[in-house]
Amino acid sequence: MVSARRVPQVVVIGGGEAYISKPDHHKMRCPVIAYKSIYPRAINPLPGWLTAVNCAILPNMNIALIQLNPLIGDFRRNTEAIISRCRQAADLGCQLAVLPELPISGYPPEDLLERPDFIDNHQLALEHLIREIRGIGVLCGTLTQNPDRGGKPLHNAAVLFDDGKILATTAKRLLPCYDVFGETRYFEPGGPGRIHRFQGLRLAITICEDIWNHADLFPHRPYHHDPVSELLGPPANPAAGGKVPADLLINIAASPYQTGKTARRREILQTIRRNYQIPVLFVNQVGGQDSLIFAGDSLALDATGRIACQAARFREDLVVFSLPRDSQCRRAAAESPATPETSAADAGKISSSAPLPGEEDDPEAAEIMAALVLGTGDYVRKCGFSRAVIGLSGGLDSALTAVIAARALGPENVLGIAMPSTYSAAASQEDARALAENLGIDYAVLPIDDILAAYRPGLAPLFGDEPVAGLTEQNLQARIRGNLLMAESNRSGRLLLNTGNKSELAVGYCTLYGDMCGGLAVLADVPKTMVYRLSRLANRQRELIPGRTLERPPSAELAPDQLDEDELPAYEILDPILQAYLEDQLSPGEIIARGYPEAVVNDVVSRIHRNEHKRRQAPPGLKISGKAFGTGRRYPIAAASIRQQTITSRFS
Question: In the prediction, which pLDDT does 312 show?
Fold first, then answer.
């Protein structure tokens, strides 16, 4: 107990507020409930509603932003991580811990939500958290039952609890159903939210998509409701004496990474902060989950818009935001100069965000590299593997995939296999070996010429005197290599990593059951031009990928003197066309109007649609763009009318 001679007298006057009588007889209005959770034995109820206590003045509320990497469906692992981090936050002097969206189950649980046993286990895990976590309030994403008879059975919700009691529950209002999201398949949208009080502070609680419908930022708003304006009303006008009904807006999220999204999200957060002149706190999931990658990058903005604290990108973290409890303190903090950020490891406060390797040279490539390393490592480990195997051709795609795998899993857990044929250049074989030595990964060579020769008599009953040549021979080589890699995967329990890039996958420059084999396509959403940028970034400190690999023209090496540009436009032309058609949703005519040759555009678009069936059979690929191939792209395979429309220019 703090000595009564050294603390002021606190008298509750109702409504959860108090006047603190200081030694100089000045009074300061402040919330009193905060002191109860820290000094519970100091509370001595008097008759009626009047209570007098002695306690320490706590000018700020310390809020922990807890950035977790859950494993979907592993309730024991996830709850243990939540409990451990919340206890750490309590030890750091925090009164509130904020966790991401659905951290108990992991996000997105998809059709597991249709299983009653999954829902029951989630409820047991939530009850366990509420029992076990004491001495700190917790705001946590959760599943709740929809009490109405109609609609979907569940809500995607957030629950606020403290010392074994649920204080508030709010349901996600805006349910995304686009790209990789399908929340309307499982969840019923929540109704209008309300402000919740916690230890005297008024909290506006939102969940992920709830902040993505601001009229100023979305000319065509995707939803009819704006949960932020429903909670906070019209923008604040301090000069006119306008008041905001909340002291802090919190957004908990499981927001997948894609290039450019971080800047857009910060624009949204800053717009909310600017309109309402209150701090804004964002807590995001981190880690890889199937094709999705979650970057974390949780942060708190103070009332001036300064980033008061920021968690790390692409790894678990805990940082602390110190929020003034009353408006006078908040204004004083807003007027004070910004202080340098310090590491949470050093002070348990502020920020542990740090520049990514290579960010000073190429920020976008550095961010993508970090995302791919995280996504690869988590996919391999969460699927129950610890080691990987890669086919090393001596080309750039397989070299970059090996670099990413070595960083994600450790070089001792990666095996590269070269499978040369008559058409493989000596330089390719030399570069593959040099790459393995540079990375420190295991390396093996399995020539395929004899295996290819054995196919010829086996095909004779069908082929007769017709030679096994041309496209048939090229695809046989790719399929032989795929079989050899899968054989090693079966033998050793290594996961096969696919090395194809987005440019090839888009136009079908790949072989079913050959170079499309694998458990994960690391570069499936990485255009070839970005492959070059990532490879140069990998070599920024020392040469990992042989310089000759970067300089030689790309080739599949399945035929004499073969080059990619024999069949495809130069990647500097192909990739912008793919960007315009796949992500920007431009028509062929609009792309042609940008100056690209009509014949090239029509051929590329035709290839995209002709090869939809191949992509349906491809392994999962890590998503880094707004429109990746995979679950977020739903185009019909049999669609002649679409194909005909796309290859017909609107410009004559």
Answer: 95
Residue type, 177: C
d(CA 359, CA 312): 14
Strands 17-21 and 9-12: antiparallel
> How would DSSP label each residue in 205-262?
EEEGGGGS--TTT-SS-SSS--HHHHHH-SPP-GGGT---S-SEEEEEE--B--TTHH
Checking if the pLDDT of 373 tops 90, the result is yes
Q: b or e along 363-390 (b: 16 or more beta carbons within 10 Å of the residue's beta carbon)?
A: eebbbbbbbbbbbbbbbbebeebebbbb
Q: Do 508 and 607 form a contact (C-beta atoms < 8 A)?
A: yes
- 509 to 228, 409, 475, 565: CA distances (angstroms): 46, 29, 11, 11
Q: What is the model's pTM? A: 0.86
The pLDDT tens digits for 585-608 are: 999 999 999 999 999 999 999 999
- Tokens 């791919």, residue located: 372
Q: Which two tokens stand for residue 88?
A: 């750490």
Q: Could you tell me which residues are beta bridge partners of residue 45? A: 51
Cα separations (Å) of 635 from 237, 330, 414, 632?
48, 51, 35, 10
DSSP-derived secondary structure for 604-639: HHHHHHHTHHHHHTSPPB---SSS-SSTT----SS-
Which of 71, 74, 57 lies closest to 7, judged by CA?
A: 57
User: pLDDT above 70 covers what percent of the chain?
Assistant: 84
| Relative orientation angle of helices 470-492 and 449-463, to the nearest 10 degrees | 120
Cα four-point dihedral sign 191, 194, 196, 202: positive
User: Of 143, 222, 121, 149, which Cα lies nearest the Cα of 187?
Assistant: 143
Comparing 15-19, 218-222, 299-303, 541-545, the range with the smallest average pLDDT is 15-19
Listed in sequence order, the residues at least 6 apart from 212 whose beta carbon sits closer than 8 Å to its beta carbon are 174, 218, 222, 268
Does the pLDDT at position 200 exceed 60?
yes
* pLDDT tens digit sequence for 446-475: 999 999 999 999 999 999 888 888 899 999
| DSSP 8-state secondary structure symbol assigned to residue 361 | T
Selection from 98, 95, 230 nearest residue 158 by Cα: 98
Distance between CA atoms of 77 and 467, rounded to whole angstroms?
A: 58
E-assigned strand segments in 112-175: 137-145, 154-162, 165-171
The per-residue DSSP string of 2-26 comes to: --GGGS-EEEE-STTEEEEE-TTS-
Cα–Cα distance measured from residue 569 to residue 577, given in angstroms and rounded to the nearest whole number: 10
Report the catalytic residues: 101, 172, 208
d(CA 207, CA 102) in angstroms, rounded, equals: 10
